[in-house]
Amino acid sequence: MVLAGLAPFIHRALGNKSGMFFALFPAAAFVYFVKLVPEVSIGNTQQYIFDWVPSLGISLSFNLDGLSLLFALLITGIGALVLLYAGTYMKGKSQTDRFFVALILFMASMLGLVLSDNLISLFVFWELTSFSSYFLIGFHHEDKDSRKSALQALLITAGGGLALLAGMILLGIGGESWTITTLLERGDVLAESGFFNAAMLLIIIGCFTKSAQFPFHFWLPSAMAAPTPVSAYLHSATMVKAGVYLLARFSPIFNGADGWHAILLIFGGITMLIGAIIAVMQTDLKKILAYTTVSALGLLVMLLGIGTGIAIKAAVIFILAHALYKGCLFLIAGIVDHETGSRNIRKLGRLFKQMPVTASAAILACVSMVGIPPLFGFISKEYSYEATLSMIVNSPLTTSAFFITGVLFTAAAGMLSYMVFFGKRNRLRITPHEAPPALLAGPVVLAILSLTFGLFSGLANPLLDQASQVVYPGNEPLSIQLWHGVNTELILSIVTLLAGLGAFTFVYMNPRLMSRIEVSEKIKPSYAYQQTMDTIAELARSVTQKVQNGYLRVYISVMVGTFCILALIILQDFGIPKIAVTWTDFRVYDIVIGVLMIIACFYTVVAKSRLLAIAMLGVVGYGVAFVFIIFGAPDLAMTQILIETLTVVLFVLVLWKLPHYLIFDEGFIKFRYFLVSALFGGIMTWIVMLVTQYPLDSHLKDFFAENSYPLAMGRNVVNVILVDFRSLDTLGEIVVLGIAAIGIYGLMKFNDGSEKANL
Amino acid sequence: MNSTILSMGIRILIPLFMLFSLYLLFRGHNAPGGGFVAGLVASTGFALYAINYGAERTRRRFSLNPLFLIALGLLIAVLSGLIPLLVGETFMKGLWMEEITVPIMGKPGTPILFDIGVYLLVAGTVMKIVFSLWEE
Lengths: 759, 136
Known about the structure:
The complex is a heterodimer.
Chain A: H1 2-14, H2 18-41, E1 46-53, E2 58-64, H3 66-89, H4 96-115, H5 119-137, H6 144-175, H7 180-185, H8 187-193, H9 196-210, H10 219-222, H11 228-237, H12 239-254, H13 258-280, H14 285-306, H15 309-340, H16 356-370, H17 376-389, H18 395-421, H19 437-455, H20 461-471, H21 488-509, H22 511-516, H23 525-547, H24 552-571, H25 588-606, H26 610-630, H27 634-654, H28 667-693, H29 699-712, H30 717-725, H31 727-751
Antiparallel strand pairs in A: 1-2
Helix pairs in contact in A: 1-2, 1-4, 2-3, 2-20, 3-4, 3-11, 3-15, 3-19, 3-20, 4-5, 5-6, 6-9, 9-12, 11-15, 12-14, 13-14, 13-18, 14-15, 14-18, 15-16, 15-17, 15-19, 15-20, 16-18, 16-19, 17-18, 17-19, 17-21, 18-21, 24-28, 25-26, 26-27, 29-30, 30-31
Chain B: H1 4-27, H2 35-53, H3 55-61, H4 66-86, H5 110-135
């Protein structure tokens, strides 16, 4: 977090080398987490607790177990590679300093999210990721589409965030704890509390929006407007998996509930199929990747929904496999785009000769995606088949859904590798070159990891085992092997592969047919989203036009009128107190000031020119200041006098620009404003009279008077209250004041009709 | 607006306004005054100057940047709240250097820092408004 604040300065100092420098931090964190692997693998969890708002039970507590560690490693490891990559990729683009700020901020919040052990702090980190990703998606903020996609992603994920917050609060109240580890042991307490189903549903909605599940999936492909390193990092490896992470995290509580299985299975399955189908209809590299990611997320959700021990194992393995190959492919898409200027697979082709390293990495990743041994993706696929096959009910349905997805994935992998690096001659104007090492490092490392984890499957085993134990307590120990022997899963895999190749050939041979497939706009969920947004905007506009008519006098009378009604509702319980004041209580100067103020008030109302009215109002104001002085409030009086003076100065500045001074002659309008004023005056008098009925010496006054000097070293109680006892309030107020100044400035500038205010 | 008395007078008065506002600021903790009032006094001086000589000239003459003042004030106020965190206290807890006593002000501590923040912010806000209105 601190690093994010410093990023722009470091970036300016280091120029293009900064990517490498920033990459050191996640790399260091990565090494730190790797060191913890042996410890965590034997089941020891690490806990760190800092109190944050102890009075509300909110603490910054971090808990590192198998699941968190798996994600932490992905976040820091891929993060380091992406930063390194971004340093070169973003070279020569403007505002890269902002880019790094948002990226590092995102990285830190994502890390906080997976490590958090407190519901509230988890939620804060969750929102921070939505927030920072908004900046990243909208990085090309001059571009309208970019802004639109960013807003779309923010609205959907933040909307889901609200559901999540509600769900978490119910969870916290129902489970009587805000600590996740405690809650996980208290599933039964929650089940009895009656909040169980509501909390579950809300949390599922939150996770679905974040992880782009149907019907919220459409924000993810739109989010491809972001620079490619962002897509690689946020939209394949980390942020979209936050939803999956949370589902997995709460799985021990909810697993077993009927609704949980049904919802996750159905929506996960639908998302998986839709994503895969749309993916093969795309021609843009990043869009293909985006939809296959949607599909992969669907698979993960479905596996969590199956919820058996084997399914959880499959899910955990797939998280790692997918992060490795998809991160790699995104980075490669970026390289191809960077070197050739095109992402259209119909235009690209035969790039292998010019870019052998990129192509090799891409092929490895694609092979892992398809699930061919000896890559890690193969293991993942075997486990997924095993999970669907071993289901007691619905097994044929899920297995065939996964089969179809597998076929389409194979086709998509073919489109990503064969059509780009082999296939037809490309239609590019320029001759592409191999990318520089800093760009290649990321995809190559990821591709090699895919291979290594496949060949030496024991490497990842302890950690994945621990992660699956966390999601499914008491899960049988995991022992992943590359070769399972000839069984149903293997045969299914082979059939999938062959069918996939068939599907790819079909897509490849019939470019015209594919481009002719069009889905009606109206059945897409994005259409519903657009309609909703338009309706809201329209509604807001019509309401604003009615309410904000621009007449200050109407605003003020509405405000005062509302106050009067509210005050009357409260005051109706009190009687009108007797005035216990006699004439002898008044001193001469009280009367003089009072009479002066009344006369001034009268002239303000009847004045025929604005200047006179303002001057008369000033007299009233100074009169109030005198009253303050008489009753021993010099601070108030001083402020009052200065405010009056400044008001006059401000009026003088704008006087000649204001419209003609309106004098209301019509009886009705006059009467209306008179009524509002009289009502307001009457109510204020009533309140003052009520207040004086009660003894004035509250204990607060004594407290401040007694403690102001000993505790706060000040003899001026008013000031001490402002800057010490209640300084947080003052801080809030001055923030508002500053914002108001900027707002006024903005209003003035935009009135000119000029587009941009020069702040 | 051209008033010889005001335009000549304000030149002499500006330093006085500044001095008085600083005086108010630093005595605020023990006697009537404080950051808010002091900020108003300071900005009133410049506002009067601006009425005579225009916003642009005022800004150049005194190299004023109201938005910068606002930001700086806010930063100082927040920092004054953060300092106690460094020594393990809660946010915004007042800290003093007990052994030093400064005339007018009393003992220096984080509350006075906070007040300085308020002072700058208030002065900046009023100036921003006045300048914007002038340029309108």
